[in-house]
Amino acid sequence: MPITLADLQIEEADHRKFDITPFDCADSDLNEFLKIDCPRYRDQRLSQTRIALYRGRVVGFVTILADSISLRDEERKWLIQKNIKVQQVPALKVGRLGVEKNFHGQGIGKALMQYSVAVAFRMNSELGVGCRFVTVDAYANSIPFYERLGFTRSQHKAYKNRKHPNMYYDIVSGPPIG
Q: 3.40.50.920, 3.40.50.720, 1.10.150.20, 3.40.630.30: which CATH number matches 5-170?
């Protein structure tokens, strides 16, 4: 049975409150970010990291930050049709996402993306901050995961030929993540 967002407790990645040291998502860069870098990024207001707890154990994390995305004319027809002229569309970026290696394939990554989309919705409705997309710069092996969730690869020239392709999810017209 998959683990859902309702099964998880989402908390600030507070190293004083939670033991993060045993966490291992099988990616040394992501592990190092969670264990060492995320408090510094938080303190400098560069990003916020949330951990996912399942039965008291840290099983995943997501780092979110402000973003904007450039779209080709074909990708922003819905704006052009409404005579809205913007080059950068506001977004929430998922800068890092990691799932404990013993919990891969159990739904935690999807649940953390559902959480991220919910944050983007709350930015609009509760905080009055415009946000149309959730974006990621995907690792090559993660592209199929994001595509299954409804993310699209950006075709804008600014994102072409990047090591980690930019992908976006439209929180208004994208398919439900679930």
A: 3.40.630.30
